[in-house]
Specification:
About 30% of the residues lie in helices and about 30% in strands. With about 170 residues, it is α+β, with helices and mostly antiparallel strands. Helix 2 packs across helix 3.
């Protein structure tokens, strides 16, 4: 007769590799899911911006004819996007409207493939006057694209340079 205190013997009837196989399959599936999520996240749209000052090349540069040139570049590996608007943003969610197209400005909306860039520009004197009137401490690039909104870094030096340009050319 068997009592409660008798030892219980268990015998493994399957070979050890058959027990290990489901564990390896589970680990591989978890690694696969993690890699899929990482690739999906890292393949999103990444935009970069650069701001420069330019002069029109159609003759002698006139006094106060500088333009603030904004270049937007798609730094994604595989994802293209459509850029709908590009503007200079100020504090308080205010943006400066672009009234006149400069030479070589892109027509928006524009499709940006990976590695491509587009350029838009503003008259530097007019931007400087607007910054001076509302006393904006900084300015940054704001671009609305098919995958969301891109906001560049706040640039205090650019705002100061634009404001000082107004003082230079003010009659």
């Amino acid at each position: 007769m068997v009592s409660i205190n008798d030892p219980l013997q268990v015998q493994v009837l399957t070979p050890w590799w058959e027990v290990l196989l489901p564990a390896v399959a589970l680990i591989l599936s978890l690694v696969s899911i993690a890699l899929t999520m990482w690739f999906r996240y890292s393949d999103g749209v990444r935009l970069a911006s650069a701001v420069n000052f330019t002069y029109p090349m159609d003759g002698i540069p006139l006094r106060g004819s500088e333009r603030v040139q904004i270049q937007i570049t798609n730094r994604s590996r595989n994802t293209a996007t459509s850029v709908e608007t590009v503007a200079l943003a100020l504090e308080g969610d205010r943006t400066l409207a672009r009234m006149d197209l400069g030479p070589g400005d892109a027509q928006l909306p524009a499709r940006l493939e990976p590695g491509q860039s587009l350029t838009v520009s503003y008259p530097a004197y007019n931007v400087g006057i607007a910054l001076e009137e509302i006393r904006a401490p900084w300015v940054r690039v704001r671009a609305k694209h098919g995958h969301g909104l891109f906001l560049g870094k706040r640039d205090r030096a650019l705002a100061q340079k634009l404001k000082s340009g107004v003082q230079t050319y003010r009659p």
